[in-house]
Amino acid sequence: QRQMCIRDRSLASIYAIIWARRGGLFHPANKQVWNPPDVRMLRPELPYGLLVLTGSLIVTLQYSVDVIVVKHFFDPHTAGLYAGMASVARIIFFVTASVASVLIPMVRVGAPADRNRQLLIKSLGLLIVTGLPVLVVFIVAPQPVMSLLMGPAYAATAPLLPLMSVGIFIVSIINLIVSYYMALRRYAVAPVIIIGACATYVLLAVHHGSLRAIVTSLDIGGLVMLLTLIGWAAYTRRR
């Protein structure tokens, strides 16, 4: 049946080409099928593309680098259990990520600062409304959540779920703030989050003796990044 379908499509394409030529439709002699991209048109947007790449990559690593560390320092069985727990905690991020996606097209570079700031505050409120109930459930009932979503075998990592969920909730707030400043084309946000990311990586490199130590390092690194962002935002607003 698949061969018949391919044959029918080929015959239909040949039939269309024949009738197109009869109708006077020909490929222009000076027209190239593929043209290389015009670098001159892309050059003005390259810095912004680099900003988006940097911001997105750092936020992604902030909630996923711990799994890489666990796979490096622990046995495959332990790493698999941890990855299951981390996947459940990341539900908070993906539940709230749509808020940042909606915020970006609404923010305008030329709009009044108060209007953009109101959008950020409303988006932050919406993020809290959508993410906080999930966080509370993960903190209050980690054992049933892990057993229900991943199975009884993953219940051993349930005590880590509340602490991990707090870290993911912090990353969700970071993602919203970074998305806001990327939409405003504030390039200074990149070195600010790089400082926070470096704090996370240093903590993970030094403090990784247990799974709880890794989760704690991730939480502290995320908190450092968030406080650095807030301090930078307050300083630039005052200026």
Commentary on this structure:
By secondary structure, the protein is mainly alpha-helical. The protein is built from eleven helices and no strands. The protein has helices at 2-22, 39-42, 46-62, 65-73, 76-89, 91-106, 113-140, 142-149, 161-183, 189-206, 211-238. Helix 5 packs across helix 9 (161-183) and helix 7 (113-140) packs antiparallel against helix 9. It is extended and about 75 Å long.
Task: Chart the SSEs and their pairings.
Elements: H1 2-22, H2 39-42, H3 46-62, H4 65-73, H5 76-89, H6 91-106, H7 113-140, H8 142-149, H9 161-183, H10 189-206, H11 211-238
Low-pLDDT stretches are none
Strand content: under 5%
* Alpha carbon gap, first and last residue: 69 Å
Helix and strand element order: HHHHHHHHHHH
Name the average pLDDT: 86
Q: How many strand units?
A: 0
Percentage of residues in helical conformation = over 70%
Structural class: mainly alpha
Tell me the Rg in angstroms: 25 Å
- Main sheet attributes: strand count, strand direction, barrel closure: none
Overall body shape: extended
- Count of individual helical segments: 11
List keywords for this structure.
extended, 11 helices, mainly alpha, 239 residues
Summarize this structure briefly.
With 239 residues, the protein is an all-alpha fold. It is built from 11 helices and no strands.
